[in-house]
Amino acid sequence: MSTCRCCSSADVVPVLDLGLQPWGNDFIKIEEGRESRRYPLVFSVCRVCTMAQIGYTVPKEVMFLQHNYVSGTTRQLRAHFESVGQDILGRVAMDRGDYIVDIGGNDGTFLVPLRDRGVNVLNIESAGLQAEISHRKGLRTVNAFFNEQTALEVREKYGPARVIHGAGVLFHLEELHSAFAGIKALLHPQGTLVAEFIYLPTMIESNAFDQIYHEHLVYYTLRSFGELLRRHGLRIADASLRPIHGGSCVAWIEHEDRASETAAVAELRRREDENGFGDLDVYRRFSQRVADLRTSLVDAVRALRRDGKRIQALGAPVKGSTIINYCGLTEDDIECAVEINEFKIGTHYPGTRIPVRYQDAVPPPDVYLLLAWNFKDEILGKLAAFRERGGRVLVPIPTPELI
Description:
The protein is α/β, with parallel strands linked by helices. The chain has a domain at 298-402: NAD(P)-binding Rossmann-like Domain (Rossmann fold), CATH 3.40.50.720. It has helices spanning 60-64, 75-91, 111-116, 128-136, 148-158, 176-186, 200-205, 222-230, 263-274, 281-306, 318-327, 376-382, 384-388, and strands spanning 12-21, 28-29, 39-46, 52-54, 99-103, 120-124, 141-142, 161-167, 187-198, 218-219, 234-242, 248-255, 311-314, 336-339, 347-348, 355-358, 367-370, 392-395, 401-402. The strands form 3 sheets. Strands 2-15-16-14-13-17-18-19 form an 8-stranded mixed beta sheet. Helix 5 (148-158) packs parallel to helix 6. 47% of the residues are buried.
């Protein structure tokens, strides 16, 4: 990496090298027979602004024009989105002409309940498939990457947005500063940006190294995110932590000249400082724990295989690609991954020859490797009958556990 994505400093220190990896949503149809291209995946921290980041950028046109993720797959995520939407309507007084923009709104899952309550909505989504699904749901949809130019075009056509929402996208941005300049330009003078992101302190504390993949270019604490926002005349007014995705933050952001910071923001910042998230030591300890976790997980998988147990990956989330490739797991370890997302079925897990099959069409194994561990409670409930018959579930994060 040459310079920091946030502050352009050259003082960016690598702390965890996950090796050469495919980008995690590169699910290639089995019949194509081609291999995933691999790219460096190195997690680093800037000494100047404390922004955590990866160095190599896989072009956005490769990762986001065509991919297989749809956000309406899990009940837990749908419920979370409805909760955030209700919070928005409870906090923000929407006038008749106001509207809500969802940046990277995928298939429109977040916006549908708001639209159904009479709110004007707009989805800005770069992926063609997901934009088409959103459009078929009757949502006003712009199929484009969000940057300053897109924001200005949207403002020209629809006026300023009363609320801008971004869930799991504002740390994906190759054009980071252009996008936040666009948010500044598009946001109503009394508007609110609602940013949902993987919360770095929780990620580190949970050993969730699988959150590191090429789509995730930066990793926010409130302090580092606040530094990025300050450069664009924005400021965090309120924030809370949510359990979704293994630990996320929902931040409420306003124009800097009107934002009034709550005690909750100050307390989260204080805890970040107290726990050392502005220093390198906490990240170096994380790196060592990740190495230890890899050893434990590989040992557990191979011990089960020596005992003759059949193992399948339950789900094929993008984060699972980081686990499988970093641990060097192959089709000799995992016979297949099983999925309900029709767009991933009939592919190979990125970087491997592990096939992805339709879950209901495959006899269940002895052990499921739960790569979507962040939905553990929901999934374990669905597996009650499997477990009663003696089936077991291997959960890899925060430490390998056989349930």
